[in-house]
Amino acid sequence: MTKLANILYASELQRRLTAAGSPITVISVHPGAVNTFSDRQSLSRFFKFLIMPIVYLFFEHPDKGAYTSAFAAASEEVGKQRDKYKGTYLMPVGKVAEPTNMARDEALAKELWNSVEKFLLEKGL
């Protein structure tokens, strides 16, 4: 659900920036399956014994998980081809992917934007 909200919000932000004539490029990023469990001290011994070998086999090290975000933020390719990357969704490593139908729903993106705006106003932000 969080990734869906991220994609919807980013795509609406890109639509608004483009409509305002801004050159800013907004990109949603999926880092891939990243091992964010191994450094947690609170994990039980049982979990570490049974699950961690699987995590190490199938999940990427956090450093490698940052590659797609780094590509989006600092790649010469993105800088030179801004229009190609505006409002896109990137998968590892730096590949443009098609998000789900729901994530491409403009009405839902606008609804999320308006809900966030209303919430922030209610909080005085």
What is the CATH architecture annotation? 3-Layer(aba) Sandwich
Distance between the termini: 24 Å
Number of strands: 3
CATH homologous superfamily designation? NAD(P)-binding Rossmann-like Domain
Looking at how many chains there are and whether they match, the oligomeric state comes to single chain
Query: What is the helix/strand order?
Result: HEHHHHHHEEH
Quickly describe the structure.
The protein is mostly helical. It has eight helices and three strands. The protein has helices at 2-19, 45-50, 52-58, 62-65, 67-74, 76-80, 82-85, 106-122; strands at residues 28-29, 89-91, 95-97.
Structure overview:
By secondary structure, this protein is mainly alpha-helical. The chain has one domain (1-123): NAD(P)-binding Rossmann-like Domain (Rossmann fold, 3-Layer(aba) Sandwich). The chain has helices at residues 2-19, 45-50, 52-58, 62-65, 67-74, 76-80, 82-85, 106-122; strands at 28-29, 89-91, 95-97. A 3-stranded mixed beta sheet has the order 1-2-3. Strand 2 (89-91) and strand 3 (95-97) form a beta hairpin. Helix 1 (2-19) packs across helix 8. The two termini are 24 Å apart.
